[in-house]
Design goal:
- The chain is of the alpha+beta class.
- It has one domain: Sulfate adenylyltransferase (Roll), CATH 3.10.400.
- 23% of the residues lie in helices and 32% in strands.
- α2 packs across α3.
- The longest helix is centred in the C-terminal third of the chain and has 12 residues.
Amino acid sequence: MKRFRFGWYGDGGLGEKMIQAILAGRKTATACPAYDPEDADLKVGDELQLVDKHGSVRAQLVVTIVELRSFGSFNEDLAQREGVTLPELKEKMNFANGRQIREEEEMRVVHFRVVQIKGKRPAP
């Protein structure tokens, strides 16, 4: 099973905030630059271990959609799936990547659902 890591040392708590939003069902998608090799091979149906920055498995996810789209096409619907507002999403993307993302830059968006939270199954 592939590992899907959220957070890094020095992230100011962003990774844990995203994990909590995933576990609560408020975050069902994540985005990164399309050139990022870490999740480049993900496809629909892949099962993932949700892992925090310490390497602890927090939940099991399944990929439901993988799409490529420009950063400039991000909208409120995607922001809601990311668990934030559109301005927060754009700010988070720039912070997480350590630079301003260009509007025309191609991004990979991975949609997922929680299959199991460590120690319990979510309601259907």
